[in-house]
Amino acid sequence: MIDAVLFYAFAALALGSALVVVGQRNPLYSAFALIVTLVSLSAIFALLGSPFIAVLQLVVYAGAIMVLFLFVLMLLNVKPEGDPPAGKGVLRTAAFLLVAVLVAEVGTVLWRATARVPPVFDASPRRVAHLLFSPQYVYVFEATSILILAALVGAVALARKET
Amino acid sequence: MEALTHHALLLSLALFAVGVAGVFLRRNVITVLMCVELMLNAVNLAFVAFSRSLGTLDGQVLVFFVLTVAAAEAAVGLAIVIALHRNRDTLDVDAFSLLKG
Predict the structure, then answer these.
(1) Optimal mutation site among A21, A40, A128, A136, interface B, most CBs of chain B within 10 A
(2) CATH code for the structural domain at A1-81
(3) What are the structural domains, with CATH classification, of chain B?
(4) Cα–Cα distance between B72 and A9 in angstroms, integer?
(5) Given a cut of 80, is residue A161 above it in pLDDT?
(6) Cβ B15–A31 below 8 Å, yes or no?
């Protein structure tokens, strides 16, 4: 019972702050609203019985990625967006139409999906790690380290001042 | 309990739709990147909900990989934003139309 109440509270918080992210013209306020979304999603992961993912979400997303975003926003001293240029109203309507089509399509599928909870669902970090380091996924795991290295080198090369 | 998982899936759809709308509507490059992060998070929520519903842990492992890719994407994306700002002194997506046909 208390789980359901917390779930709907955090779901409303996540959705509301996501709308602020999109509706806000000042990127700095968008970033702070996105932090609220990420933290409430972390709580939802915990309520859905995935403590490992919940902590990972807090550390990696709210901790690392959002600090990076805020750092760049403050470094570049970003100004709020001005009024939208005239004559783009058609594009704006088309964007809303495309989003409506997406919601209708995926919503139809999800509405019919039958979600059932098996009697035992144990997603403890130990069990997730056993699967992550099993032969099925361990090579992919190693590949992600190369991906991180490539991203590291790429970021330094791109942001460096040309001399 | 069953309703909780189902509603988590619907929440994931709503968050993804909000992210798509943001990518279409916002004109600041950094806000667009943040909306992409929002979409990745919506997909993570769907993975966790399906993992719980099916009783397997593969969804949790996939969320782990999505997180890694998101971190790499944010690092490279923000480096590109810094390079763009250095060259053009603006972050408006409409200003970067050199490749427009």
Answers:
(1) A21
(2) 1.20.120.1200
(3) 2-93 (1.10.287.3510)
(4) 31
(5) no
(6) no
ipTM associated with this complex: 0.91
B69 token code pair: 């890719």
Residue range B38-46: mean pLDDT, rounded: 94
User: Considering the entire predicted model, what is its pTM?
Assistant: 0.90
pLDDT one-digit tens code per residue, A57-116: 999 988 899 999 999 999 888 888 777 766 677 888 888 899 999 999 988 888 887 766
| Two tokens, residue A135 | 């032969």
Gap between the Cα atoms of B79 and A152, Å rounded: 10
Give the amino acid at A24: Q
Distance between CA atoms of residues A129 and B87, nearest Å: 45
Strand-pairing partners, residue B92, are B28
B88 part of contact set with chain A, CB < 8 Å: no
Distance CA B59, CA B52 (A): 8
Longest Cα–Cα distance of chain B, Å, equals 53
Residues A52/A128, Cβ–Cβ less than 8 Å:
yes
Residues A9, A19: Cα–Cα separation, whole Å = 16
Q: CA-CA distance, A18 to A10, in Å (whole number)?
A: 12
Query: Within the 1-20 window of chain B, which residues sit less than 8 Å (CB to CB) from chain A?
Result: 1-11, 13-20
